[in-house]
Amino acid sequence: MIRPFFTLLVGTIALAACVAPAATSSPSASPSTSSTPSSSSTATPVPSASALTDWQLATVPAPAAGRWATPAAVAAGDGRLVAVGGPVRAEGVLEGPSYGTLWTSSDGVAWAAIPPEPALDVGVGSPTIGPQPGFSDVAYGPGGFAVLGYAMTDQGIRVGIWRSTTGEVWERVEVPDGVFDGGRPMAITAAGPGYVIVGAWLDTNAPSKDAVPPRAAAWTSPDGLAWTRVRDQIGFAVGGYIDTGETPDAGGMLGVTATTSGMIAVGQTCKPVSLMETMGPPSTCRPLLWASDDALRWTRIDPDVAVHRGTLQSIAAAGERIIAVGGGWSGSPARYTLRSSDGTTWRWDEDAGQSRFEGVVSVPGTFMATWHDSGQIQLSTSPDGRAWTAVRGVPKMSTGPSIRNSDIVAMQDRIVIVGWREGEEDPAKSAFALVGPLDTD
Predict the structure, then answer these.
(1) Is the pLDDT of residue 304 over 70?
(2) Pairing of β 56-59 and β 73-77
(3) Phi, psi of 14 (to 5 degrees)
(4) Coil, strand or helix: which one is 156?
(5) Most buried one in 27, 63, 161, 416, CB count within 10 A?
(6) How does pLDDT run across 334-390, given as a tens digit for each residue?
(7) Radius of gyration (Cα) for the chain, nearest Å?
(8) Arithmetic mean of pLDDT over the chain
(9) Residues 8 and 161: beta-carbon distance below 8 Å
(10) Strand 80-88 relative to strand 73-77: parallel, antiparallel, unpaired?
């Protein structure tokens, strides 16, 4: 999945994030939530899942009349799907607060939008670059659905966590400021003690010469309410800052998945780049991985990447098999996957003619990867990451704008892909869901 709501700098690759060294945060003790939890009682009822025998193309409805739907991440749990995106203002409102967007479904075909409500408030205004208000990722774990996002405050853009045990009633988690100070979280998953967030940290003085170098970072929670910053460690080094003239970019963790022995995170490390240099050569970033058995101690894994620039942004595990997907800088033909049977030793598979995979998920017996081509979603399968076969029968969307973001999840007997198209004139056609059976033969 391409992480949403981050402005990309020309000549760099997808924005990574940053975290402060030597910062061992205390758990967010006795967390409180927003005064009024969100209720989806006014949303369209979610129908029961129906049997699925072939692929279907569905529309994800607008969160408010006249507003564009931007679902960019999806999670499944307890017989329900939750997709997230945003931000939007309420119907008929031109100025004022925006709200993160949420949708629920039992089958991936019929979706109900949760209307903008106070608990989903993500503030007024937005920065010109860097993290943007809205919801960027979602996971299902022991505390239910947990959503990662950002909100605009009087102190600028800040990390936000939202939580629901069922996907219907939502609350904003009030995490003490120190836990996410300087943090740029990018992805959340159910792993370790309950939930794990990965990303990075950057010094507020960056990119000045005296700024502390950026770091990869992780946070954990047993229930989605109490969050702790993982202690900084040697393996969290991710190079230097990319000076954008505003909020700098840097390396960090971009994705994470649970494995049979712990978890693996993927991301990038970047050489420092001055403001003048950002207008010149391609990205100086290259892929990295990290492994952990408890989400507290991480080992940096540096595969043989001497000739590989770019990033790894998505990863999936099926038993002992693990696959990560990524690509080179903008305009580069290099597209690649990494595969491993133990999380430590990795093999590169590169095909200059292969379209870039944006997301990957494991299903019984195989892996599935998505990619965008001419405004359409393409889907490929592989049992081990060595060779990929295109899935037949995936419905074609009407001719229109390019796909901006998409995400894929496996649920019970089906695969569900959600996403949205940037520049669509009709709000009712901006967001979509593709749903198909797990058996793609």
Answers:
(1) no
(2) unpaired
(3) -50, 140
(4) strand
(5) 63
(6) 567 888 998 888 888 766 445 578 889 998 878 999 988 778 898 999 998 888 888
(7) 20
(8) 83
(9) no
(10) antiparallel
Closest residue by Cα to residue 285 from 250, 261, 256 = 250
Structure tokens at 71: 């679902």
Structure tokens at 211: 């700024």
Digit-coded pLDDT (tens) for 133-158: 999 999 999 999 999 999 999 888 89
Q: How far is CA 205 from CA 126, 153, 208, 434, in A?
A: 20, 20, 6, 44
Is the CB of residue 44 less than 8 Å from the CB of residue 59? Answer: no
Residue whose C-alpha is closest to residue 315's, from 125, 187, 429: 187
- Strands (DSSP E) along 89-237, which ranges? 98-105, 112-114, 121-123, 134-141, 144-153, 156-164, 169-174, 183-189, 195-201, 215-221, 228-229
DSSP state of 430: S
Token pair 């309950």 in the structure block, residue: 194
Which amino acid is residue 130, in one-letter code? G
What is the pTM (predicted TM-score) of this model? 0.87
- Length of the chain equals 441
Q: Where are the alpha helices (DSSP H) in 77-192?
A: 177-180
Going along 250-375, which residue ranges are E strands? 252-259, 262-270, 285-292, 299-301, 311-318, 321-327, 335-340, 347-350, 359-363, 366-373
Strand partners, 198: 218
